[in-house]
Amino acid sequence: MELCELTIHEMNEFIKHKKVSAVEITKSFLRRIEKIDFTIGSYLSVLGEDAVKRAVEVQKRIDKGEVNSYLSGIPVAIKDNICTEGIKTTCASKMLQNFVPPYNATVIKKLLEEDAVIIGKLNMDEFAMGSSTENSYFKLTKNPWDIDRVPGGSSGGAAAAVAANLTAFAIGSDTGGSIRQPASFCGVVGMKPTYGVVSRFGLIAFASSLDQIGPLTKDVTDCAIVLNSITGYDPMDSTSLNFKYPDYTKALVNDVKGLKVGIPKEYMGNGLDSEVKTAVLEAVKVLKQLGAQCEEFSFSLTEHAIAAYYIISSAEGSSNLARYDGVKYGYRAEKFSDLLDLYKKSRSEGFGTEAKRRILLGTYVLSSGYYDEYYKKALQVRTLIKNEFDEAFEKYDVVLGPAAPTTAYKFGENADNPLGMYLGDIYTVSANLAGLPGLVVPCGFDSKGLPIGLQLVSKPFGESTLLKVGFSFEQNTDHNKKARIRGELEYGI
Amino acid sequence: MEYEVVIGLEVHAELSTKSKIYCSCTTEFGGEPNTHACPICIGMPGVLPVLNKKVVEYAVRTGLATNCHIAQFSKQDRKNYFYPDLPKAFQTSQYDIPICSSGHIDIEVEGRTKRIGITRIHIEEDAGKLIHDDQQSASLIDFNRCGVPLIEIVSEPDMRSAQEVIAYLESLKAILEYIDVCNCKMQEGSLRADVNLSVRPIGQKEFGTRTEMKNLNSFKAIVRAIEGETKRQIEAIEGGADVLQETRRWDDVKGISYSMRSKEEAHDYRFFPEPDLMPIVIDDKWKQEIEESLPELPEVRKKRYISEFGLPNYDASILTGSKVLADFFEEAVKKFENKKAVANWIMGDLLRLLKEKEMEVEKIPFPAEYISKLVMLIDKGTISGTIAKKVFEKMFDQNRDPEIIVKEEGLEVLSDENTLVVVVKKVLQSNSPSVEDYRKGKQRAFGFLVGQVMKETKGKANPKIVNRILKEELEK
């Protein structure tokens, strides 16, 4: 077995017992990237020599016994909307193709403090707007399970890289499902934590009130390990939450007896692929056998969540993306006649279609005369959705459902149908609107051999509950094992 | 037809907090371009704002000093527009729930007191500065001012003349200085005012269409702009044209205003709640702490000067109009009874010299006790009033104790009768034509002779004694 196929906790064992060095591990990933990322396309930039140098430093500390972190010497790749000092951070946009941040995001600082080794930056939908990574200005990322299919999005590069063993784990961001849906499409574990538990400082904003950074990993144990490292109060982020953060690895307990699980019947109805439905119901059966109490309930606002989400996220996005006007930030058009022309040309040439669509939508819903009808109404729906979740969590510990209505689709299949693409976010956006944590774990494959993800959502700060359920499910099924790609896949190059 | 002008003001005051509103950069004025700037205040991708608590405190101070209601819960909003001095392309401000609302201040115009309503006071961030380089035909941006905290103080349309506007601004400026939230230097842009103005026939209840005038950098410019705009609007109405609702830019050099943008061209700012910041909560305890920390305000101090020191209303107004001046005055009269004389010296010679030398009140070059010492020297008859003026100038220029100046330079009044008799005799001898005139009954000649004696003694002679001796000698 190759080193790069291991989980964080497996690698940590090897490192701890000096069976392999951080340098060997990093090199193993770099070799793999060189070999197959030409096909997968998950990376936008790879830190070859710099990563090796860093691994050498880290190994020196390990040799001195100075480091005692799970992440010491573990390679990590970062979605390209998270600022890395001295390393290009493009948001997969022409707008920022030359942007090199002079500072590190808080989450990067934390990873570096734990001696993780950053090996590269990952592809994504431009400014995290999209669900297939097809909106990247630079390239397509292929789904490692079928390279004719999308990896999901917007953290498509992250999910594909983890699935194809191109990194030990990845850090992504989730505004409406951007970690969970690609995790589902690529058969990896992905978590969007509670809003406010991971600092957003250094995350290039799409929709500030919805964005949340989270991990994509090979199993639930790794997810807990990474959460321990990246969560915590940050005075640089006013929306960061100051409380006593738990040790998430303590939640890795194989026990769901008495757990109350609610399944929104609206999540299991029209529009849901039958094979996905079957897999989710199978998962429910497993949990029941393990002693959980599962029942259906009605989440009546499901159909309004998408509209509220797209109004709020586009409104905030239109404002957050306004700074890319060619003056201080962003691509600047070569020829322009005056200031207005500079703005128009730079923004027309610098943004892709989907970003423009959302900027227009967001600008429209905030305009005077339309604000009350759209933006304000959407905020009201958001409050109602929160309330409906509050009610549900009075009865249930977790809300269970599919992560996406389908498995990975083919390139171009939804590209000309933005509304269809938006509807694919139906099961994930509610957690963002309500600020709740959501975990996606593999729960089987469809008949085409594509992975299916199971989504678990809990009340705020319920990460430990989610990890416990996810861990138990993982321990009592072979879905995770089957979803781990071993050896060299024969990619049709 | 007789017209009435209706004016409301939007005043922007830069807060004198040490650091900026959302980051730890200094707010200091000046500095090489772009040296007081960091990723946060220049809105670099990925950064987040953290509200400076002092900014809220200063806004609350201002609100309490202007009798405002303080909101227990308020929020910040984004005001979206594109301009090169605004790197984020939105200004973080407050839209529908400002920190302070429904206040007032009282102003005095021609002896009458008038109450001017304060609609609201909210916090916001300043933008950068554009510098146009004509030689390179380029525009440069200095981001130093980005994120400097501002409060915007919006008045009701309660003012009816330029005089009232200036009285309001003077009062507001005094309050801001007293409570130490703004240094109010208009020339550095730390206090800026936009004038909303309309005219209507006297007796008409409805307001006319208003314009907003920007770029007013001094009180004088404000007065000229109000006069110019009032005239322009009346002429438009009389000429049968409409006054258009628009924003205009005042050119103080040319003395005219230009239309910047019409109502139709006005920005749609697409305000919405700033999602990166939490609501501002001001609980009763905090509010009370701030209230208790407020100093005596100008209005109260003025009343005290009248009742406690027996100063006339005018003197009390001038002295308390500036906190520095009032503090200086109080220091000078701390152990001294002749308060009116000290007030006269401050309002007269001191302010005159400061103005002549283009110095600010903060820069008074000598300690306050020197003024009381000077007045004491006059009161005791040690020096004459004429000499005192000269001593004052030396005191100002050299920061020397007046007692020492008088002693070292021998400026004491000459009261020795024997000496004076000799001087008088000498003057009478050499001015026989005037002596003749006096004897013929020309009183003017007496004054001339007194003057000659004073000249002979370099102004030091005691005028009372000179008068008496001169009369005695002439009558001989």
Descriptive overview:
The complex is a heterodimer of chains A (493) and B (476). Chain A is an alpha/beta fold and 493 residues long. Helices cover 39% and strands 13% of the residues of chain A. Chain A contains 16 helices and 11 strands. The two termini of chain A are 23 Å apart. Chain B has 476 residues and is of the alpha+beta class. Chain B folds into 3 domains: 3-289, no CATH class; 296-408, no CATH class; 417-475, Arc Repressor Mutant, subunit A, CATH 1.10.10. Chain B contains 15 helices and 16 strands. Chain B has a 9-stranded mixed β-sheet with strand order 2-6-7-10-1-11-12-13-14. Chain B has a 3-stranded antiparallel β-sheet with strand order 5-4-15, with no helix packed on it. In chain B, helix 12 (417-430) crosses helix 15 and helix 13 packs antiparallel against helix 14. The longest helix of chain B has 20 residues, at 219-238.
Q: Biggest interface, which chains? A: A-B, 42 and 28 residues
Calculate the terminal CA-CA distance of chain A, rounded to whole Å: 23 Å
Note poorly predicted spans of chain B. Answer: none
Structural class of chain A: alpha/beta
Please state the overall shape of chain A, judged from the principal axes of the Cα atoms: globular
Proper CATH architecture of the domain at 3-255 in chain A: Alpha-Beta Complex
Contiguous helical run count of chain B: 15
Helix coverage percent of chain B: 25-40%
What is the general shape of chain B? elongated
User: Using only CA atoms, what is the Rg of chain B?
Assistant: 30 Å
**Mean model confidence by pLDDT of chain B:** 93
In oligomeric terms, what are we looking at?
Answer: heterodimer
**What would you give as the CATH superfamily of the domain at 3-255 in chain A?**
Amidase signature (AS) domain
> Unreliable segments of chain A (pLDDT under 50, ≥5 consecutive)?
none
Give me the number of helical elements of chain A.
Answer: 16
Order of helices and strands of chain A: HHEHEHEHEHEEHEHEHHHHEHHEEHH
Number of strands of chain A: 11
Q: Helix/strand-derived class of chain B?
A: alpha+beta
Residue fraction in strands of chain B = 15-25%
Instruction: Please report the total strand number of chain B as a whole number.
Output: 16
CATH class of the domain at 3-255 in chain A: Alpha Beta
